[in-house]
Amino acid sequence: MSTFLELEHVTKTFGSEGMFGNGSVTVAVDDVSLSIDEDESSITTVAGESGSGKTTLARLLLGSHVPNAGRMLYRGKDFTRLTRRERRNFRREIQPIFQDPFESYNPFYKVDHVLDEPIKNFRLASSASEKQQMIEDALEMVGLVPEETLGRFPHQLSGGQRQRVMVARALLLKPRVILADEPVSMVDASLRATILDSIRRLNRDLGISVIYITHDLTTAYQISDNIMVMYRGTVVEAGTVDAVIPDPQHPYTKLLIESIPQPDPKNRWGSEPPQQNWDTSDLQITGCRFADRCPAVMDRCQDTKPAQYLINDHQLTACLLHEENGEMTDTDITSTFQTEKETIKAIPANS
Amino acid sequence: MVQPTIEETRLSTEQAIKTYREGARITDADALVVEDLSVYYETDNGTVKACDDVTFTLKQGERFALVGESGSGKTTLAMALMRLTRPPGHIAKGSVTLNGRDITKLSDDEMRKTRLSELALVPQGAMNSLNPVMRIERQIVDGIIDHLDDDDPKPTKEELQETVRDLLTRVGLRPSVARLFPHELSGGMKQRVAMAIGISLRPKLIIADEPTSALDVVVQRQIMQTLGRLQEGLDASIMLVGHDMGLVAQFADTIGVMYAGKLVEIGPVEEVFSDPKHPYTKLLIGSLPSLQEKREFLGIPGLPPQLIFLPEGCAFEDRCPSRFEKCQAEIPDLFDLGGRREVACHLYEEEAKS
Predict the structure, then answer these.
(1) Are B39 and B92 in contact (CB under 8 A)?
(2) What's the rounded Cα separation, in Å, for the pair A327 and A320?
(3) Cβ proximity of B185 and B176 under 8 Å
(4) Please, which pLDDT band fits residue A277 given cuts at 50, 70 and 90?
């Protein structure tokens, strides 16, 4: 096995405290390590609320943010040292799908444009007929009928169709990884299923790994193999969805799951949860970042930063309540992630 | 199926109303009566019936949720209730009776006074509805001052500040937010400001148009629960417009399902979720992903019809799994099934008559 992409203790901050900064520093991603395997494809959800750093993490993975600390490896090579050719290859192999299917199109061009462009750019087709064939195959792969889609303007398609054209665009480039940032949050509930289903098919049929960024744990549970939950830049819980969702260990994951508006009038929300306190700068927090909202907060949480503790083979959490599972030394953190990687491998992609 | 006797139906209806009342807020008084409301858009290609013959009643204190996919006419309906329909759209017919007054008959100036003081809108995407160059306090005070009559005493600066402080606290914000600009607030905080503006004149009806559509689950829950608390404080009714069935299940007392400009089903939320009648509602509820079990996604096949070329019969006919001959020929009426349940589907014609 080999690793396609690896983040090693990556930290990304915005703003600066120094002489020229305005004094506020946001730690968007704090010491996150993860790896995406070359051969074993899986669907991994990155979950968390706005401001949890999930989009920053996505941008790091796409290479559009440079980490302040830690490094990213692409096929074992430091990302900052890639040759032009390797970087080009990287840009083909990881493809994003964005949140808003209305803004990712130029309204003056027909939808064909977004499909033509990558083929031209990466010189994927040698003739016009080959290009046409590729486009039609990609559209059919995501469940669209080429004759009904091509030659139209974006406004003539529904939100669900537009988003599926975007999936087809990503697919044209034969990527190893698709990074979908909230792909369904702007789309009607009744159309979500079709988009998620086409994403799931990419994973099953073509072996493409998917990183699904969302705050919607219901769809995450339905389509993904693994999940990592982020809160204010840190990974608070990670593991397989079958371990995490039915039995969350971190109080934040519990809050997220409780807050899902379940379509069941007999099973309603409990009392109103506390709001996040945005007044404290990230750098002022010495302990757990969730301490100010945590229902199970202890004195120690204010000044002790939790490490990652293993709950079982398929689940880790960063919460002091599970400290007895053994605080990890530096090497142990890597081993946790290897375990996490093994759990990814333990589940066949088409389970 | 064994038909219940009239006596049984009456009893179960009474039981339904009783459980309702024990939800506490709801009284018998009608807060809003919408009758045959139709909103048409006149275009070069013909008339678009965005909202057609919609009839429903909202009780004082009730939480009514209007659901439907994009383009089903739910926002058109909400805007028409506020009389904010813009040309080429117009209210073609029907009446909207709010606290005993038909607001479709009011003059523009009277309507302007009615908005905010009697019915308020918490808009979709609060981030875009606040003025980016005005401090929050100015934006809250604006509406209050605008609604003063000429002979009302002018409130002092201190009184206004006190009002703003009180409103912000009630929606769960710190009073110091008053001095901030919108870009300094998070999405959830902006939505709270929009609610503060909405309740500033103690309206009796709050129309919330997808108030949490761009927010994440925890904030969404906080906003909805704050909205519920405010409503109880004001003794107001709420009409929630949206497509998130989960939210509706959590929040509403009554649900109205819209499809292609028409209300196709109305009923108490618990009953509609446990026993949906209209085939569209059935598919809609069946398509919801759940946390209890993993299964294949079931979308609703096909697309809603274009509102400009509506079929002669039922608009859902071509997607409906239980269609029969009559559906193509005739638009079904909204049949009353008793117990505040109504459904617009030919399947229930017999049941409604008996």
Answers:
(1) yes
(2) 9
(3) no
(4) low
Interstrand relation of B119-122 and A315-317 (parallel, antiparallel or unpaired):
unpaired
Enumerate the residues of chain B whose CB falls inside 8 A of the CB of residue A273.
218, 221-222
Pair A167, A205: CB distance under 8 Å = no
Each domain of chain B, given as residue ranges in start order, spans: 58-86+106-243, 253-354
Highest mean pLDDT among A252-266, B164-178, B264-278 belongs to B264-278
**ipTM for this prediction:** 0.75
d(CA A204, CA B320): 31
Q: What pLDDT was estimated at residue A344?
A: 41
Residue A330 pLDDT exceeds 80: no
Average pLDDT over residues A43-54: 84
Residues of B in contact with A222 (CB under 8 A): 289, 294-295, 297
Q: What is the mean pLDDT of chain A?
A: 81
Between the CA of residue B38 and those of B35, B55, B94, B96, B259, what are the distances in Å?
A: 9, 10, 6, 11, 14
What pLDDT, on a 0 to 100 scale, did the predictor assign at position B154? Answer: 83
Angle among Cα B45, B51, B54 to the nearest 5 degrees reads 150
A10-26 average pLDDT score:
71
A293 phi and psi angles, rounded to 5 deg: -115, 0
How many helices and strands, by DSSP H and E, does chain A display?
11, 12
What count of other Cβ atoms lies within 10 Å of the Cβ of residue A183?
29
- Provide CATH code, domain B58-86+106-243: 3.40.50.300
**Which helix H or strand E contains B224, and what residues bound it?**
helix B217-234
Could you tell me which residues of chain A have a Cβ less than 8 Å from any Cβ in chain B? 49-51, 158-159, 185, 188-194, 196-197, 215-219, 221-222, 245, 255-257, 259-266, 268-269, 271-273, 275, 278
Residues 6+ apart with CB under 8 A from A65: A12, A56, A59
User: Taking Cα atoms as reference points, which of A12, A22, A129, A36 lies closest to residue A340?
Assistant: A36
Q: Among partner residues B217, B294, B300, which is closest to A215 by beta-carbon distance?
A: B217
Give residue-wise pLDDT tens across range B69-121: 877 888 889 889 988 888 888 898 888 998 888 888 888 888 888 888 888 98
Q: What is the DSSP string of B16-52?
A: HHHHHHHTSS--SSEEEEEEEEEEEEEETTEEEEEEE
How many other CB atoms are found less than 10 A from the CB of residue B18?
9
Pick the CATH number of A3-248 from 3.40.50.10540, 3.40.50.300, 3.40.50.2300, 3.40.50.970: 3.40.50.300
Q: Is A56 left (phi over 0), alpha (psi -120 to 50) or beta?
A: alpha
Query: What is the share, in percent, of chain B residues with pLDDT greater than 90?
Result: 14
Q: Which of B128, B195, B220, B221 to mutate to test the interface with A (most CBs of A within 10 A)?
A: B221
List chain A domain ranges: 3-248
Crossing angle between the packed helical segments B187-198 and B157-170, to the nearest 10 degrees: 120
Report in angstroms the alpha-carbon separations of B28 from B20, B58, B81, B228, B247. Answer: 11, 10, 21, 19, 25
Per-residue model confidence (pLDDT) at position A22 = 58
Nearest-by-Cβ selection for B284 from A51, A190, A256: A190
Residues in chain B: 354
Sheet containing strand B341-343, strands side by side: B119-122, B205-209, B237-242, B63-67, B254-259, B262-268, B341-343, B335-338
Say how far apart CA A187 and CA A202 lie, in whole Å.
20
